Model the fold of this input.
Amino acid sequence: MDTLLLPFSPRYIVLTVCAVVTALLVGIGIFDHNHKIWEVLLVPIAIFGALTLLGIRDLLQKNHAVLRNYPISAHIRFLLEEIRPEMRQYFFESEKDGMPFSRDTRALVYQRAKMQLDKRPFGTQEDVYREGYEWMHHSVAPKSRGSAEFRVTIGGPDCTKPYSASVFNISAMSFGALSPNAVRALNIGARKGGFAHDTGEGGVSPYHRENGGDLIWEVGSGYFGCRNRDGSFNPEEFARVAADDQIKMVELKISQGAKPGHGGVLPAAKVSEEISKIRGIAMGEDCISPAYHRAFSTPLQMMAFIGEMRRLSGGKPAGFKLCIGHPWEFLGICKAMLETGIYPDFIVVDGNEGGTGAAPLEFMDHLGMPMREGVNFVHNALIGINARDRIKIGAAGKVATAFDMARAMAIGADWCNSARGFMFALGCIQSLSCHTDRCPTGVTTQDPTRARALVVPLKTERVYMYHHATLHALSELLAAAGLDHPQQLRPIHFSKRTSSTEVMSFAKLYPSLRPGELIEGTQDPRFRDAWAMARADSFQPAA
Done:
């Protein structure tokens, strides 16, 4: 009896209804002698018939248990799951909700990029008494807002072609991860605004070159654009590419905040013939940047490689980018600097809150040091070896607003890079589909039909205006604090609520080492043990 009633159970009733309606409609058509009846019945028969066939297929397939138990109707579950991010974003998020970037932050970037009013009415929506709330101190003697053309000179004593960089630049995003039109718009915007555009590890593409914006050439473990056929580093090819006047700095990518120790992956679906040619890789396969470098394996060799990059580039600033992992490894690099006398011109510190097109969840959520702690660690380590004055520090990792910049620079950064901020300026809506090649706004896709939605002249202007408006906001923050330049920012200018009743200055949260303290022998628990474990001849800790 139960078996006979099964088609009428809630689980199967939709399939049953579709089958019965299809049969009834076909029966009416057969037994009705008016041949014109088929003109009326054809569409509904097709609809209900297709649903019936779908239900039968659901019953027979073996991949999804929910479809076997709820034929047809279970597809609603998959549909809702597919549009869940959009539903949450448009209907349920408050202004302060939304991850990784809140609706309020995204709206701010859009407004600044479009030269729209970016002010807010009626007071803050932040809970200023919640644990973790942070603020910047203002002065009772604020200054008049000065020029927002804040710049920093990058290049140590060994650099013959120092670069005057904006304090706000486009972070590393490769062509391949980004569409041609996205790269074009970013580069033209960078040229117009006088700021730098990091190529990402995917190599210098024609779209980076065609409009002449300043480039930071990032070289990853895949050595794209300067590799031999076996994937090893080719110094002659590196020298040829780096000689281009458009390339202002060369950057060695050690690790990326969102997936440190994992390497980079460009899915095979996004490896076009063009990308294959630019990167020197085979089509039809995932383009993988190994998690480790083949050109060096110790801190000493790494410093030698940095020195070689600077020599081969003709004396341009040479540095590296990393997310801090084992503290003794970075301190081992510091010891290698002291031992070899070779110092990078800059270090870009990425944080585990940084963005990426695709990464395992465990890596994104639980691997690597957050950017602020990383920046302050590197800042203090360089102070501790008396090298801070010759090495500039860039901060990358969820930087989108002037406050983000000021906070990072107060604890050690000389400039900031932003990737997702500039993606928002291009029109990114945080659909979280970067890895699918189905980006709805044409930013992260190699599909020409999708990429054409990104109109380069319009987006160029928005990239430029976002940069301009953000630096304008930074200048207003500095003026309110009684400062003239972001280089004057210190930890004492910021505070953080550590509980509902307690507040702590950043100066207490991020204490500084004394110049040369690591060399002299520090007792600071943040560095003492790691410094003792650090080795210049190996990334492995000392026994």
